[in-house]
Amino acid sequence: MRLLLFAAVAVFGCSKSREAPAPVRAELDPVSEADAKAFAETFAVAAKNCDEAKLAPMIETQAMAVKFMRQTTLPNAPAAAQTIARSTLGARILCAWMKGVDEYKLLHVRMVGGEPRPILRRLITDPRSGATIVGYDELQLGMSRRDHQVRVVDAFSYVQGQWITQLLGGNVDAMAKSLDYLGDLPLMAETVRKARDLQRAGSNKEALAIIDDLPANVRQYRGVQMMRVRAAAGVSVEQHKQALDELAKVFPNDPSIAMVETDGAFRREDYEAALKWIDMIDTAIGGDAFQASQRALAYMKSNQLAEAAEAADKATTMDPTLTRAWEVKLDVMIAQKRWPDALAVMTELESKHGVHFDEAKLRAAPAMAELIGTNEFKDWLAKRK
């Protein structure tokens, strides 16, 4: 079956000196699940060390422009669609998402209304804390009638909570020059930008005050809400919780806010809430070992050790290559005082994940005190040497 995407352009008050933009058109065929999987695996490799020029041929810009036209009511939409169709904006946004990524891989392909949607996971190491940060992307694909190649029509970021076509908004010309996610916020943009700059500079209290003075319709914009959460996190635990509660109220049952809500729940030691948000994102993406390891961590911290061990085993079985899953499993094994199992996990981490356990640091760590006093630990040390 052939899918025809066509954006018609209405012409109002045309003159010889200014012609209306030509319609944007794209013809696509459906993509099979097997083709979606093969494409996504290739795409993940290309996108990780992102080169906009090299990634651009993997984007079906005509179809992206048509989708943009279908969902916008902005008066400059026809001209904006032409800009999208001719530009590498889609690739530029995808490359922005890839900044600092340590790992980018296909998890699986899920079916949405009969359409195969690859789900990809990106892992980033926070340069300040060293913590592993996770993000997920969902690809919408189509096979071009022009050359029978599978390409990306659009991509949804579970971090941004939006499709690329939504992020483009109305200020496409500005984004073509400088990627600015305030481009689709025409009201109060300069004020919001000031708050953003203050928050990035660490002036969180001042940034929060500016955001809280914004009109309700601007304050409830997704990007502003997320900025408010970041600013509040730098002020106090109480302000952070209030900001997260407001975010959940503005975007109820939205899996794209689940990861930031999970982080907040862990910070305030509300593990019941953490489990709720973990389940939401895990269901939305169709399951992932990283979320299973997050579940294990929440159970462990709430002293539900049997449940923690079950979730940790599930995480390492789902994705044996995921270092984070083994790290959490080690914590759970130590909490359960399962010394042989803990040492087996340590061997796994050293032999297959590039982790090195320094003996002096192990002996200095209070959490390891019981383990290092066991005969099993002595045998493990001897085998390493």
H-E string: EEHHHHHEEEEEHHHHHHHHHHHHHHHH
Number of helices: 21
Question: Any idea what the radius of gyration is?
Answer: 24 Å
* Strand portion: 5-15%
Structural class comes to alpha+beta
Shape descriptor reads globular
Strand count, sense and closure of the main sheet?
A: 7 strands, antiparallel
The CATH architecture classification of the domain at 3-177 is Roll
CATH class of the domain at 3-177: Alpha Beta
What fraction, in percent, of the residue positions are helical?
40-55%
Identify low-pLDDT runs.
1-18, 173-179
Q: Count every beta strand, where a strand is a DSSP E run of 2 or more residues.
A: 7
Gap between N and C termini, in Å? Answer: 64 Å
CATH topology (fold) name of the domain at 3-177: Nuclear Transport Factor 2, Chain: A
Mean pLDDT: 88
Would you mind describing this structure in some detail?
With 385 residues, the chain is an alpha+beta fold. The chain has a domain at 3-177: Nuclear Transport Factor 2, Chain: A (Roll). 55% of the residues lie in helices and 15% in strands. The protein has helices at 33-48, 52-55, 61-71, 77-86, 89-97, 164-168, 172-177, 189-200, 204-212, 216-219, 222-233, 237-250, 258-267, 271-285, 289-301, 305-318, 323-335, 339-352, 359-364, 369-372, 375-384; strands spanning 3-7, 24-29, 101-112, 115-125, 132-144, 150-157, 162-163. Strands 1, 2, 3, 4, 5, 6 and 7 form a 7-stranded antiparallel β-sheet that branches. α8 (189-200) runs antiparallel to α9 and α13 runs antiparallel to α14. The longest helix is centred in the N-terminal third of the chain and has 16 residues, at 33-48. The chain is globular.
